[in-house]
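Key idea: predict the complex, not the pieces.
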Amino acid sequence: MQVGFAVNILNSLPFGPLAFMLVLPLVGALIAYFAGKGGRIVTLLVTAVELGLSILLILGTDTSSIISTDPEAGMNFITTFIIGTIPVGSPGHPITTFQFILGVDGLSVIMILLSNLVVFVAALSSNHIHKSEGFYYSLFLLLQTGLIGVFMSLDLIGFFVFWELVLIPMFFIIGRWGEEGCEHAAVKFFIYTHLGSAVMLVAFFVLYFIAGSEAGIYTFALIQTPGGTEGLRTILPSLAPMVQIGFALAIFMGAGVKLPVWPLHNWLPWAHVKAPTPGSVILAGILLKMGGYTFIRLGLWLVPSAFTRLSIPFAVLAIFTCIYAAFTAMAQTDLKSLVAYTSINHMSWVLLGVAVAAFAIGLDPTVTSNLRFINAANLALQGSIFMMFSHGTIISVMFIMAGELKYTAGTREIPAIQGLMNRAPRMSAILILASFAAFGLPGFSGFIAEALVIFGSVVIYLWAGLIVFGIFVTVGYVLWMLNRIVFSDPDPEKEVSEAPWSDLIAPILMMIPVILLGIWPDLVLEFTQSVVTFIIGGIAP
Amino acid sequence: MMLLQLTDIANIIRQLFSPLKDFLLAVVPPGWLMSLPSLTLVAFAFIALIVGLKYNPLGISFIGVLLAIVEMVTLSPSDPAIVNLIGTGGVSFGQFVRDPMADFFIYIVLIVGFLVLMSSTLYGGDKGPYNFLLLISFAGALWVVMATDLVALFLSWEVMSTPTYVLVALGPGREAIDGATKYFVMGLLASMLMLFGIAIVFGVTGTTNIVEVASAVQNIWTTFGTNPNAAYTILLAVVLFVVSFGFKVGIFPGWQWVPDAYASADGSVTAYLAGGSKKTGVGALMRLLVIGFIAAQTQWTFLIVAVAILTMIIGNVLALAQRDIMRMLAYSSIAMMGYLFIGIASATNPAINLEAYTIGVGAALFHAFAHALMKSAAFILVWALSIKLAKRVTYDDLAGLNKRSPLAAGLLAILMLSLAGMPLTVGFWSKLMLFLSAVTAGMWWLAIIGLLNSVFSLGYYLRVLRYTYMVKAPDESHISLPTIPLAAVVVCVIAIIGLFLFPWVVWDYAWAAVPVP
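Result:
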C-alpha cells in the first residue's frame, strides 16, 4: 500500500524524509534546552509532528512483496551520508566508506511508529517532572533521535552509533530524575548494555574483515546502495558457517541484553523500577524492542542460516525465560517491579517467534510437506513483530498507572494499596483493562500476538507449547495483583485519591491502539507481511 | 580521492601572508626554512624572557605560536618556490624533514600549545621564565617529530624534555617538587636508555639516519639465517627505544611518574604534557617503528601488543581507585595511550597487509589528535575549577556542579563521554578505528581486550557524570570560571562534537600522514 500524497509530502521534506525525522528532534532538543519550562511544549510539538510523519511514512512505504534477489531488499527512501573514507587502496580492495545508510521497509516503519507513539505518550506523562525541565526534555528528544535512528540504519556503523547514542540520554534520565537509589541503577544499565554492544561491535569488525578478505569487498553496508558495492546481506551466505554462527552469537549478546533474555536480564528490574515514569515507559516500550528488532534485522534477516542452526537453543532459552520471569514477577510486591518482570516475560515470546521462524528458513517451498512449516514460521514471526508492537503499547499504560499510584496512594507496594475500585474508579478501570490486555485476554492486542506465536510454534516444535505454562502463571499473578489492589476492601486508615484527568490522558490515548489492534490486527500485519515473507524465503524472481 | 577540506582555509592564509613568505625565502638560508617554526619559537622564547623582566610576556608567546602556525601553513614543503630552493621532501639541516606525518604532529603540538597559553592566563603565565621554558619546549617538540636522524632526535628530545622538568617543579604546591623529581629522575633514565639504543643501532648498522637504518635492518633480516646476532642486537635496541620513548608517552613500564607529575604540576603544564609532549613521543616512536624497523615488524608487534594490554589495564584499574580528578585523568591518559598502541601494534608490514598498515597507523594518528583535544581540554577545565575552589578537585567537589556552573558541568560531561568513546563525540570514532585496525590485522582478541577495558573505564567516567549531575551539592554557591581558559575548553568541545559529525576534516589528513611504504 503506497499512498501518492504521502510520498509527495515525504519527498518534499528537506534532506529526505528519514534524515528529516532524525534531525528534527535534535533541533528540538537544542531549543528545548534553552526554553527551560517551555521545553515541554516544544517536546510535545516535536513528538506530535514526528508521530504524524511516521504515519505518513507508513502510508508512503511500498509494502508489496519483495523479490528474494532484490539487492536493496525492498527498502524505501534509501539515503546515504558519507562520514569518511579509508584509503585502503591496493588493487582488488576498494576504498572503505564509513557511511550512514538510511532506509525503511514494512518492519522498520512499524517500529518507527511504535517509537514515536511511545515517546509522545511518555512526553505527555512527563507532567510530574519539575526539576531542570529544559535539560530533561532536550535529553528526551535526543533519545528519540537515537531510537528511530536504530530502526532506520542499514549499515553496521550507523546502527551502532544510534544504538550507543540511546544510552547517554537514558543514563541521565534514570539517574537524574529517578527514585531513591537511581544513580546505581543508571550506572548498572549503562555498563550492562555497553558490554553487550561491545561484543557486538567486535563481531561487526570481524565480519567486515572476513567479508573483505574472502569476498574482496570491505564494507559495513547491509544492502547494496545505488552506485555502491554489494551489501553484507548478499555477501554473508558465502562465508563459512562458523563465521555466521559466531556473528549470530555476538548479536545474541548485544540484543539479548536489551531484550532481555535470561541470564542477561539483571539490569532490567533495577533500571525500570528506579527510573521516573516516562523513563520506564520508554525503557519498556521501545528500548526492549530495539533488542527484538535487532534479533530480526541483524539476525534472521542478515544471517538466516546461522539462526536456523541456533533455533532450538534460542527457543529453549525463550521458554525458560518466560516461565522464570513469570514466577519472579509473582514474588514482587512493588507494582512497578512486577510490571518490569512482565516485560521480560512477554519479550521472551519475541525470541521464541524468531527462533521458530528460523527453522523454516531455507526450506524448499516447492516440496509440499515443507509448506506447513513455512506457513507456521510465517505466523510465528508475524506474532513476534505484533508482540513487540502490542507489548510496547500495553506496558506503557501499565507503567504509567504504576507511577500514578505513587502519587495518589503514596506507595506502589501492592499489599499497602487497598480498595482502589471504591476510591478511584477511573484509575481502576484503566488498570483492569491494561492488566487484561497484558495477560492476553481475547479482544486485546496481546491475545493476537500470543496466539500467532503459539500457533506457529507448536507446528514446528511441539514442546514449544510449554510456554503456555508461562501464560497460566501470568494470568495468575496479574489477577492476584488486581485482587489485592483493586477488588479488596478499602482500608479507612489509608488515603487513596482519584487521579486527575490530566494524568489519565496519556494512558487512555495509549489504550486506543491496544483495543484497536485487538479487533483489527491487520493494521500492523498488513505492513509487515511482505518483510516476513521475504525473510522466510521470499518470492522467487 | 582525498577531500582535505581545510586546504581552502590554508590557501587563504597563504595568500594573506605571501609577502611574508617572499621575504622569508629571500632572507632565510634555504637549509633553515623548514625548521623556521621551531626557530621562531626559540627566538620568541628569548624575547619573552627579556620582556618578562618588566612586563607580562604572555602576549609575546601568543604571537610566537601564531607566527609558527602561519609559517607552518605558508612554508609548505610542496610549494614550487620552496622545492626550487631546497628540493622535495622538506629537509632542514639535513636531519629534519617535514613529511605529512611530521606536519600532523606539529599541528597537534601547536594547537595544544595555543590552548595551554590560553590556560596560562589563569596562573603562571605572567612570568618570563615560564614562557621561556614553555616556548623552548614547543620548539623541541616540533624538532622531535621532524627528526629523521637518531642523534638529531636525541638532541631535540632533550630540548623538549629539559624545560618540562622545571615547568613541573614550578607548580603551585609543595608536592610539585616531588613530582618533578620523580619525573626528572625517570626522564634521565629514559634518556640514557635512548642513548644506549642509538649507540647499539649505530654499532650494528653504521648509520644513524632512520631511512638508512631501515634498509640496513632489511638486509639484516634477509640474512638472518647466516648472521642472527645482528638481528638480536637490533631487537634489543627496539626494546630500549620502546621503553625510553614510552616513558614520555606514559606507557608500561615507564608510567609511574605520570600521575605524580600530572597531578602536582600547574594544570596548564599538565595539559601540555598530556596533550602535546606525549604525542611527540608517539610520533618519534612511530617514525622509528614503522619507518626504521618495519622489517622487524613481526618481532616488535608482540612487544607493542604486550605494552598496549598492560598499559590499558594498569591505567584503567588504577584510575578507578582515584578520588582526585587530576590523578584520575592522569591514569585515564595512561589508558588512552594503551588504546593508541593497539593502532601501532596493528601496523603490519605494508608489503604483507597494506589494509592493516594503513588503518593501524592512520587510527593511531587520529587518536593522537582526538586525545590531544580531549585531554588538554579536560586538564584545563579541572585546573580552572581547582584554582577557583582553591583546592585539589576531588569527586566530592564536583557534586552538584550542574547547579553551581551548568556550562562547566556540560563541558566536563561531554569530555568524559568523549574519553569513554560514546557517540556524538570524536572519541567514538577514534576508538572505533583503533579496534577496527586490530581486527583488520587479525588480532580480534586485542580488540576485545581493548573494548573490555573501554567498558571498565566507564566505571570512573560515569562516576564523574554521577557526581556532577546526580549528587546534591553541599553548598550551592555559584562558581564563575575564568573566561579565557573556559573559551579554550569550549573551542575544544565544539571541535570534539564537530569532528563526530565531520570526522573526515581531520581523518583525511591522518590517512595522508601515513608514511608511504
